[in-house]
Amino acid sequence: MRVLSSLWPWLVPLTACAVIACASPKVQLNEGPREYVGTDYEDVLKRWTRTAQLTKVDEMDNVFTATATYESWDFRWAYVVRYADDYRLTIDQRQVLLERALSQTREAHQFYLAVYAQHYEWNDLKAKEPAWIVRLIDDEGTETAPTEIKSVKKPGAIEFTYFPYTNPWRSSFRITFPRIGSHGRATISPSARWFGLRFAGAQGNDELIWEVGAEGARHVASAGAAAHPAPRSRL
Question: At residue 55, does pLDDT exceed 50?
Fold first, then answer.
């Protein structure tokens, strides 16, 4: 049934400029029910999407652009509501889809990602010797390698509609990270003030950062964690 199998090839091409145009809002990582309607999806998508552009200033070359959406509990809820509206799902079908989507957030951290590189072959994050490696990071110094990088070889109506930054000039991926690292700790700390994706390679490095709001960082005060500034791109 395509309704279920196509759930996570999402995100439509939100244009990069739409994502960058205003300051990125803080996010909350709490679970619980949401009251979304289908028309809320675009706002929720923007909240959970980040874009970074690595440029060589001396040459004014756009070396690398990455746009990613963190498939959080909150995002998945809004996605399922929109998807169910579009595909005219029954209440039972929608409930099955929602339960499956939300359960996945407890198993792994997943991101939908679209990248553009100066040279097309540099787009391939799955290459034996990739131009860029991707890591999940947080402000407590945790750095985690992905357990899976899956290419979206032929983006279709799902990707172009629900992840609008997808386009023919970009390569799309779904990236999965473990929730618990090999060190036995959470890969995004419960007290993190921010988390993100780091792209690093010979051409430079940059980060996509999601700052966590008060509710999402509710353990910080009791843990006494000192805030670290969000990282900056380096060339």
Answer: yes
